[in-house]
Design brief:
heterodimer, A: alpha+beta, five-stranded mixed β-sheet, B: Ubiquitin-like (UB roll), Rossmann fold, nine-stranded mixed β-sheet, 12 strands, 33% helix
């Protein structure tokens, strides 16, 4: 019997809230049936500063998505970002004491628990524990069970966040009468969608430049090696333009979207760009060169920060597949060239996979929310493979009715 | 509250969800809750309505099944007695309404009248024995002949002729009994409202058949058709003849007067033919007083 679930992917971004509704059948197929979007005015750099307006915007977007889907969302996948996100590597280790020094599932479990047991600072919670592989007696192994050894180590990349900020996000969704089934950090969501398995194997960096933050994830050997958030985004470019050209923020944003380029070119000297662009009386003109210089400076700085963060990981040897740019800012002309020059690795602007047929959904702004649905589909597959997990969720839902 | 410490959490999944208390709800969310509540209420109402409908249909179906049986009907018992072949089941089928009314409301006179209107019943006695017994006693007519007629629609129909000349549709007779009855032809019958008028003056014919059956059973059993074309109940008007067709002798002609003597003569003739091996007769006409015309094949 085919069971379908109505899954909602919610991205509460700095500039807008995007909600996609999909129907998933037994973890085998996904059909996007609804979309809702609203401008978000209550966030700064990926963090909620006005809970009330974020709730209004989010609820309006969810409502619009449910209306267009003609169905109510049953499961929610929420993307999460913000400069408070931290990532660190922490390994768990255990000595193999069983007969013949053969690694058992219990040994693995013990090592995993050890890796996850690191006590966090007060007010911090784990968002993800991403396994980075096993090391048995100093040698990396894919699966250590049934192999001989004396010391097992499991590598983990942990992502933590500020508990209060996580609560705020959950509270916004709960306020609509929905529970959050899973939280996925933005870069993982967009990374899982844009990077192919081959790229993840060879090494690739996915950089999602949003309005408030830049999220990145580095894959190598099919594993997530590092994630991070840089509190710099498109808003900074807008702000710089506003200050540099002495225009209002709203006009600067408009100017950025219309005319800003990431690289300065010779012909920019003679080019003038109207501020409003509608030929209205009093419309002033600004030099394309100035606009591009300001944009270039801020984006270059962003890539330098990224380069410094990743250090030796960001080399052509470590990242044969280079960098994939996504997010709204990745639509800036010549940003790929700038990134390539600054990071010294091949850079491409991300393309949604072919199964995303809707032309608007193929825009880079939707990479995160589509990635959330992609993750949700994998979750459903796991649930289909391991029905006990599904039963547990069902049971908890039922018991939750009487709480 | 000062000094109060929240339990430390390690995963975001430990954050309690679900309770709307303290959550930031908006007008849109409240509208949605209201829509969900109304929809749930509507579904619940629909389920209740469907359930009530099903129960109602079952109830009325049960009532409808009970309606044909009036109160007390089940307690009315029938005692049906007859000297013929009719049974209690025939009575129930022929008069279904009588057993469905209150026993005290049974009009015995009317039932008797209705029964006696049935050609097969010659005499009926109907009694009510309280509290619930209806006693019906009937005397039946005995069929002597079979009559084949065509009804108004042109459809052939077999009727029975009783000894008193009553024509009726027989019921309950064994097939062998009916097959043994000779058919009648040449008879003009007239219809009335209920069926056919009785044939007057049939007694001599019946007497002839009875005597033949009694005196010459071996001969009678081969009689197939009694032709009454030349039969006349008013004997003074013209000679009244009964022609019998049988399987052995093609035709035996009787007069309706002096039947005993004709039967005797027929017996004598048949004995003589057999004794002297005179051959198979084709015609024996006994209607000439003391003489007989015999024609051989």
């Amino acid at each position: 019997m085919s069971r379908s679930k109505i899954v909602g992917a919610i991205e509460i971004g700095t500039s807008k809230v995007v909600v996609l509704v999909a129907e998933m059948a037994d973890g085998r197929s996904m059909n996007i049936i609804g979309r809702g979007q609203s401008t978000n005015i209550g966030m700064k750099k990926g963090e909620i500063v006005d809970l009330s307006s974020v709730s209004d915007c989010t609820h309006a977007a969810i409502m619009a998505a449910e209306k267009s889907a003609g169905n109510q969302i049953q499961h929610v996948y929420l993307s999460f970002s913000g400069s408070h996100l931290r990532g660190f590597r922490h390994a768990g280790a255990t000595a193999i004491t069983g007969s013949g020094n053969v690694v058992t599932a219990t040994d693995v479990q013990r090592a995993v628990e050890n890796a996850k047991s690191k006590v966090l600072d007060p007010g911090q919670v784990y968002i993800h524990h991403i396994r980075n592989g096993f090391v048995l007696d100093g040698h990396p192994v894919e699966s250590p069970v049934s192999r001989q050894g004396s010391h097992l180590e499991v590598q983990y990349w942990h992502v933590t966040a500020d508990e209060k900020k996580v609560k705020d996000h959950i509270m916004v969704v709960n306020g609509f009468g929905l529970d959050v089934n899973d939280i996925v950090i933005s870069c993982l969501a967009s990374g899982s969608l844009l990077a192919t398995e081959a790229e993840k194997k060879q090494g690739v960096l996915v950089v999602d430049i949003g309005k408030g933050t830049t999220d990145y994830v580095l894959y190598r050997g099919r594993r997530v090696v590092q994630t991070g958030v840089i509190p710099v985004g498109g808003d900074h470019v807008t702000n710089d333009l506003s200050l540099g050209l002495r225009v209002k923020s709203k006009l600067a944003e408009n100017l950025k979207l219309r005319a800003a380029r990431a690289m300065v070119q010779k012909e920019d000297r003679n080019e003038k760009v109207p501020l409003v662009g509608d030929l209205s009386i009093g419309d002033s003109f600004h030099s394309q060169l100035s606009i591009n210089k300001i944009t270039h400076a801020r984006l270059e700085e962003l890539f330098i920060i990224l380069k410094n963060r990743l250090g030796s990981l960001l080399t052509r040897q470590n990242l044969p597949c280079g960098v994939i740019l996504t997010g709204g800012v990745s639509k800036t002309p010549l940003i790929g060239d700038l990134a390539e020059v600054t990071l010294d690795v091949p850079v491409v602007v991300g393309q949604s996979p072919d199964w995303v047929r809707h032309s608007e959904l193929r825009e880079p702004e939707y990479a995160t929310v589509l990635g959330l649905l992609y993750n949700a589909l994998y979750d459903q597959k796991e649930e289909a493979v391991n029905p006990k997990a599904g039963q547990r969720k069902w049971l908890s839902k039922m018991t939750g009715l009487f709480n | 509250m000062a000094g109060r410490r929240e339990k430390s959490r390690s995963s975001w999944r430990d954050i309690q969800q679900g309770s709307s208390r303290g959550k930031k709800t908006t007008k849109v969310a409240r509208q949605r809750h209201l829509v969900i509540l109304l929809r749930s209420a509507w579904i619940a109402l629909l389920v209740v309505a469907v359930g009530a409908g099903v129960v109602g249909i079952k109830y009325f179906a049960r009532i409808a099944q009970e309606v044909p049986e009036p109160p007390g009907a089940a307690s009315v018992k029938l005692d049906f007695r007859t000297d013929g072949v009719l049974t209690g089941d025939w009575f129930r089928q022929a008069f279904p309404d009588i057993l469905r009314i209150e026993i005290r409301q049974v009009d015995v006179g009317k039932v008797k009248e209705q029964l006696e209107r049935e050609g097969q019943v010659r005499l009926a006695t109907v009694n009510v024995s309280l509290p619930s017994l209806l006693i019906v006693q009937v005397e039946e007519r005995e069929p002597v002949l079979r009559l084949r007629v065509q009804d108004s629609g042109g459809k052939a129909q077999t009727l029975l002729v009783a000894k008193d000349g009553t024509i009726y549709q027989g019921s309950g007779y064994p097939v062998e009994t009916l097959l043994r009855l000779p058919g009648v032809s040449g008879l003009k019958v007239r219809k009335n409202e209920d069926g056919y008028l009785p044939i007057p003056g049939l007694e001599p014919v019946v007497y002839l058949l009875d005597q033949a059956k009694e005196q010459l059973p071996a001969v009678y059993q081969h009689w197939r058709v009694v032709d009454l074309g030349d039969w006349n109940p008013e004997q003074d008007y013209r000679p009244s003849l009964v022609r019998i067709s049988s399987t052995g002798i093609n035709e035996i002609v009787f007069s309706t007067t002096g039947i005993d003597e004709q039967i005797y003569r027929l017996a004598e003739i048949l004995q003589r033919i057999e004794r002297y091996q005179l051959g198979q007769p084709k015609l024996i006409d006994l209607s000439f007083r003391e003489e007989a015309v015999i024609r051989y094949k």
